[in-house]
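pls ignore typos typing on phone
SN-glycerol-3-phosphate + seq
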Amino acid sequence: MKKPLLLGHRGFSGLYPENTPLAFMKVADTGADGIETDVHICKSGELVLCHDERVDRTSNGHGFIKDFTYDELLELDFGSWKDPAFAGQRIWTLGELLDFCKEAGLMLNLELKNGIEFYPELERRSAEEIRKRHMEDTVFVSSFNHVSMQRFKELAPEIETGLLYESPLQNMAHYLDGCSADNVHPCWHVFEYQPELMELFHSRGMKVNVWTVNDESAARFLLGLGVDGLIGNYPDLLCRAAGR
Ligand code: G3P
Ligand code: CA
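k done
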């Protein structure tokens, strides 16, 4: 069996507050290959990491990231909502995470959160941060916004892209013809419904990285189908399922 790519979804978000320095750092202890995260642009222009467009669910603040300056975001506690023991976790910029990944030798799947808020500069600015650090081979970019993903590819053809999708799409082969994605990032449940898709993707030379796999038996099922990458909240569980 080929060696699958194993990534901690929003860091090691099963046990630690998602998309925080702590959750990112904890992935490095598990034996997984890297991290998946989500990027937005705040009011003062910094690229910051958070899943939601608003800070409400994962911090002690209220409102949209686009309405906060970076200094205001730094005042927020992104840890306590998960457990008071994690109080004081702050937001990280994309640059901080890239530096950490480079130092730790981790891969990064960067999701452009350009689906509810549309950040016009997100593609160009993200590519700039990756290139500045010469991390084109260890970072790949995905988005549910396929136009954004395509724009990124046009701006940075040397960086791999992944087409994110959740519900089965009709005429998949035809859809793939019309977009420039290198790889696909489907919700893993798609393969319970359409296991034959694995062959279609592979026959087109696309790697298949699935999310969000939090169950060992699901991970084994997917590995048996020949999946290339697993993204999950418990990277330690993914390592166990893959026999690491
Ligand atoms: O990249 C896979 C996964 O992160 C997509 O869904 O909502 O967790 O960002 P979401
Ligand atoms: Ca994501």
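The chain has one domain: 5-53+94-241. DSSP finds ten helices and nine strands in the chain. more later
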